Write a sequence for this structure.
């Protein structure tokens, strides 16, 4: 028996094959009394039903948080969460923020230096100084 | 003669009945031998007192208009090991999971809820996911193995088993379940949200998954570490070439509880293994549910999208003990000229960091190339690369697999390439 095997686990790439939306839950907190929640209450009444119906893969929870500013919290598949305080915002501004939560992937914000990152092997191979005829200087 | 309806063969799994419980539908009250009281009490007097106080507290909570009950639960729900199927329709998590996986409307939420109940949480096969997971396991393993066999016809059996385990074993299925956003309940029970994965860390549950035989001499294999030949692994063992033991986690019972329930955030090795098993069984059960409700084509597309689309570098799985000997055996078998290693290029031979590039040639054909800091190492690397390029021969990415032929309007089957087998080098383990 000359060939032996190592253990390895396949790596998933979201969007290759199936796409799973990374935002799995959005919590919306409001206050019935405070003025900073006025926009949030309007959002919940007028815009949320349509938005929630368009995104069945996200679980929405709406709960009161008396005497506090309204907040929208997104929970992600990687276990992280992202909270946005939406005090004094208009319903359509809150909609923008909720769309931001929907589109985020839950990872920390970071600067990407490469336009494309891939785990595939390079098609052209890695340049080697030991092959070819070299270059005349 | 009646036509066989293959698509109906798993229909009984949806409403499985036990031989003694004929005529009981899955929504009927559940008859099981558990205590009627929700709480466990030391004596009956204490139980009565507790139930009275609980009822009083419940009254107070129910009548308070500021805090209406979130969900009207059946009175004895806490005594059941898993949530009743009708609660599946009220779970937001479950509906979200159904939409997130883009499942067909033919799959009801009750079935999806059932895929989340592990055998360790609810031993009753009418309510747990064992049967669906068995169907799903066979389907996943079938589709993965046919893809590997057709796409890489020369894979040695050891590598094939490792690749199967890396694509369809419990570890990758656990990762798939995690990527679906599956959350688990802390403790299973009738009152928990049906959208949470339910498994127990105390009871192990006996789910029979997959085909295979437990060997008669298994005790001696464990004790003396006998080598299991590849041929016997094909016959006796499971789809990943692992020996089938009667109870996988049987040793847990003898261990103390502290070892099992470690209070770290990651748990102990045992709890992690149990969680991995439960998550993997859930993924298998989802595949089984898709087959049961939607049929063959849907399940093939699902396995392709979620399991086969993941990346596994097969060339990283190989370990060679004597690559040069194996390569010369291969050349002799295939009537190639003898392999000869030639130095293609070098630099810094007398320096601290030399580089030698060695190619292995058979006649005028270059079989492989490797570069390393010593001549012998470079030659061995070249031989390994040559062997890998032989073993990883592939007729292409988009090969047709046998299950494509189950479709009725398809073009006729062209025979797939079948290799005569891996190279067996004599005395390969002399040097170890």
């Amino acid at each position: 028996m000359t060939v032996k095997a190592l253990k390895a686990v396949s790596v998933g790439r979201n969007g290759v094959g199936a796409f799973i939306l990374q935002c799995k839950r959005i919590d919306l907190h409001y206050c019935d009394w405070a003025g900073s929640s006025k926009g949030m209450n309007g959002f919940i009444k007028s815009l949320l039903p349509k938005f929630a119906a368009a995104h069945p893969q996200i679980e929405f929870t709406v709960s009161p948080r008396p005497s506090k500013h309204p907040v929208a919290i997104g929970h992600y598949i990687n276990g992280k969460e992202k909270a946005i305080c939406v005090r004094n915002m208009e319903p359509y501004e809150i909609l923008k923020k909720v769309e931001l939560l929907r589109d985020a992937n839950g990872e920390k914000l970071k600067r990407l230096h490469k336009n494309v990152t891939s785990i595939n092997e390079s098609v052209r191979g890695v340049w080697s100084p030991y092959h070819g005829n070299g270059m005349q200087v | 003669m009646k036509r066989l309806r293959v698509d109906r063969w798993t229909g009984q799994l949806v409403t499985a009945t036990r031989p003694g419980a004929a005529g009981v539908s899955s929504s009927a009250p559940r008859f099981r031998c558990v205590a009627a009281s929700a709480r466990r009490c030391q004596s009956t007097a204490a139980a009565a007192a507790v139930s009275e106080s609980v009822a009083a507290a419940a009254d107070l909570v129910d009548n308070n208009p500021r805090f209406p009950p979130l969900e009207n639960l059946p009175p004895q729900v806490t005594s059941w090991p898993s949530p009743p199927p009708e609660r599946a329709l009220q779970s937001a998590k479950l509906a979200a999971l159904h939409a997130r996986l883009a499942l067909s409307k033919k799959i009801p939420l009750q079935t999806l809820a059932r895929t989340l109940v592990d055998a360790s949480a609810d031993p009753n096969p009418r309510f747990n996911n064992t049967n669906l997971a068995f169907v799903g396991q066979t389907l996943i393993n079938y589709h993965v193995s046919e893809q590997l066999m057709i796409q890489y016809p020369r894979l040695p059996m050891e590598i094939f088993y490792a690749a199967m385990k890396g694509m369809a074993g419990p570890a990758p299925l656990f990762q798939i379940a995690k990527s679906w956003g599956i959350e688990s309940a802390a403790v299973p029970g009738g009152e928990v949200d049906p959208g949470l994965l339910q498994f127990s860390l105390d009871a192990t549950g006996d789910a029979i998954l997959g085909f295979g035989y437990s060997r008669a001499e298994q005790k001696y294999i464990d004790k003396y570490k006998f080598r299991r030949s590849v041929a016997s692994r094909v016959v006796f063992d499971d789809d990943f070439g692992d020996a089938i033991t009667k109870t996988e986690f049987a040793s847990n019972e003898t261990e103390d509880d502290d070892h099992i329930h470690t209070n770290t955030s990651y748990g102990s090795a045992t709890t992690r293994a149990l969680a991995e098993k439960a998550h993997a069984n859930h993924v298998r059960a989802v595949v089984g549910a898709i087959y049961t409700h939607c049929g063959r084509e849907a399940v093939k597309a699902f396995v392709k999208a979620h399991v086969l689309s993941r990346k596994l570098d097969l060339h990283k799985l190989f370990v060679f003990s004597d690559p040069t000997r194996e390569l010369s055996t291969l050349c002799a078998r295939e009537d190639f000229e003898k392999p000869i290693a030639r130095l293609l290029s070098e630099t810094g031979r007398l320096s601290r960091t030399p580089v030698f590039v060695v190619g292995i040639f058979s006649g005028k054909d270059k079989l492989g190339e490797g570069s390393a800091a010593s001549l012998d190492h470079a030659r061995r690397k070249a031989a390994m690369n040559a062997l890998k390029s032989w073993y990883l021969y592939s007729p292409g990415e988009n090969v047709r697999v046998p299950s494509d032929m189950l479709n009725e309007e398809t073009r006729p089957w062209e025979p797939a390439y079948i290799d005569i087998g891996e190279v067996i080098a004599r005395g390969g383990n002399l040097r170890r």
Notes: The CA atoms of residues 67 and 112 of chain A lie 40 Å apart.
